[in-house]
Description:
The protein is of the alpha+beta class. It folds into two domains: 8-95; 99-249, Alpha Horseshoe (Serine Threonine Protein Phosphatase 5, Tetratricopeptide repeat), CATH 1.25.40. It is built from nine helices and five strands. It has a five-stranded antiparallel β-sheet with strand order 1-2-3-4-5, with helices on one face. A hairpin with a 6-residue loop joins strand 3 (26-34) and strand 4 (41-48). Mean pLDDT is 84; it is low at 1-13.
Amino acid sequence: MTSKSKINIVSRLSSEFSSDIKADNITYHVQTEDMGLKTCKVISRVFLKGEVVLSRKTDYAHLVKLETFSQKLSSLMENHHKTTIDLFLKDKARQKKSKSEYFEDVKQLLRKGGSKEALRTLRKALENFPTDPFLLSYYGCLVAIAENNPKEGIKICREALAGFKSSGSFGSEFFYPVFYLNLGRAYLKGNNKVEAVKAFKEGLVHDPENHDLLWELTKLGKRKQPAVPFLDRGNPINKYIGLLISKVSK
């Protein structure tokens, strides 16, 4: 099970069991109550910030006439309480997606123009993967564009890029264009074309044939000629010279 939980029964009254549990670093409150002899029902509810996210009932009419009714009811409530927690955590584990699944959902939403829904999906993804630089980079870009908050979006994109650079992942240069594309788009939303162009060009240093980066620069009329014009942009020589020029100009 991917969800971790710590179950503490903080109160055990004759008519109630209460616990706080954690799943994916989110705290939920679970409460099991006896609804009384009028209904002969036990109900367990899972709460998140005061709202019910799961509710389960069971009947105990068959226990009422037993001499050990009180003990049987208490045992039933405790079992129902623990079963509710177990089912809830298992369901949360099934619902948890991988990072690639979240990215695929975001891509599909963006293709359909659902930028705000994509932003909500990224928020949910970050609940499970709060430090992932790729998720943070896309999130920052959408904060700038979908929420019209370029200042915060740029900040998040820059932090995501810095975090990715510091990770020292093998073959990390292959992924840099994505970070610079998101950063550049966040700058564009803030009407900072100078920094946007810098970001797009820096991305092209690592991938001279990146269609998204080239498209952004073409729209801005800022596409540069390759260092060696008679060679393709993707030629290793052009890529290497571009990288040297970039480092010297910094």
